[in-house]
Amino acid sequence: MGDFDVHRSTTINADTATIHALINDFHEWTKWSPWEDIDPNLDRTYSGADAGVGAKYSWSGNRKAGIGNMEVTGSDPHQIAVRVHFDKPFKATNNVTFQLSPAKDGTDVTWRMTGTQKGLMALFGKIWPMDKLVGKDFEKGLAQLKAAAES
């Protein structure tokens, strides 16, 4: 087994409330998620609360997009916690947090995903660490979140 912690940060020239609203509501993720352009025919389902704790989002797409779901498990003005579960291309459940901290030039945002790779994925992780697999996606997503929040 291999534990991992992938995180990226940026400063966004917007207040925490504006950024929080873009993350806390899965309907808003189409504006900034780095995975939105992977499958133009992605099937999305929203359920539970409209936003915040209990909001749920499921997707099913092509081979690259896979199948999975997310749920907001914690939400306060400075942190949003999301449980992410993948069914395909591989089974995994990971914890994601978005930390929002007021800064001189707006808001510092840190996107973090933690979890444990098991079985074949643990072996795969020795060759391609999670940081290499999703780090660039986090960077792209934060850049797109920045653009959405600052517009």
In short:
This protein is an alpha+beta fold and about 150 residues long.
Task: Report on this structure.
It is a single chain. With 151 residues, the chain is of the alpha+beta class. The chain has a single domain (2-150), classed as 2-Layer Sandwich (Alpha-D-Glucose-1,6-Bisphosphate, Chain A, domain 4). Helix content is 26%, strand content 44%. It contains three helices and seven strands, in the order βαββββββαα. It has helices at 16-24, 119-127, 130-150; strands at residues 2-12, 43-48, 55-60, 67-76, 79-88, 92-103, 106-117. Strands 1-7-6-5-4-3-2 form a seven-stranded antiparallel sheet. The longest helix is centred in the last third of the chain and has 21 residues, at 130-150. The mean pLDDT is 90.
List the helices and strands and how they pair.
Elements: E1 2-12, H1 16-24, E2 43-48, E3 55-60, E4 67-76, E5 79-88, E6 92-103, E7 106-117, H2 119-127, H3 130-150
Antiparallel strand pairs: 1-7, 2-3, 3-4, 4-5, 5-6, 6-7
List keywords for this structure.
single chain; alpha+beta; Alpha-D-Glucose-1,6-Bisphosphate, Chain A, domain 4; 3 helices; 26% helix
